[in-house]
Amino acid sequence: xxxxxGTARGRKLVGFSGKNIRPTSDRVREAVFSSLFSRLGxxxxxxxxxxxxxxxxxxxxxxxxGAQKAILVDQGRQPEQIIRKNxxxxxxxxRADFRRGRATTLLRKLDAGGPFDLIxxxxxxxxxxxxxxxxDVYRFGLLQSGGIMCVETSEKVELPAAIGNLVxxxxxxxx
Length: 175
What we know:
Blueprint: H1 26-40, E1 47-51, H2 57-64, E2 69-74, H3 77-90, E3 96-100, H4 103-106, E4 116-121, H5 130-139, E5 143-151, E6 162-163, E7 166-167
Parallel strand pairs: 1-2, 1-4, 2-3, 4-5
Antiparallel strand pairs: 6-7
C-alpha cells in the first residue's frame, strides 16, 4: 500500500496483519481521488474527517494532495499505532489529529474541527448503524456546504437517498 499522489507520492504505508481489516486499495483510492478532484478541484485549504480511519490511507492521501488538515478517528489501539506510523512516514503528522474512540460517540465533539469539506466513512461491513451515523453528521453540521462525503459499504447496504440536506448524488461499485 502506497500513497498515490502529492507530496508523499510513493511512500509506503504500514498495514494490518490478518484479514479482519480491509484497507482501501491503491487502485480504488486513485479512482476515488480522481473523482473527488473533478468535483472539488484542488485539495488545498480543504479539511478532512476520516471516520473508521484504519491505516489512515484516505486522509493521508488527501493531506498529500494538499488538504490543510485532517482528523482521523478509529477506536482501536492498533489502528492508532499504525496511523501515527503512517503519518510520521509521510511527514504529514503536523496537519493531522488522531482521536481514539467510537465514531458515533466522538461525532458530537468534532464540531470544533468542522465543518469539513471532505468526510470519509468506511465502517466495518458488519456495522448496522451507518444510517444513524449519517444522520449525526447532518445533525451536528459536520459537512461543509458543497462538501462531499464518501461512504464505503457492502453492496448489500442501501443508503438513503437523502438525510436532511445531505443528498446521495452518486454510487460507484469498485471490487
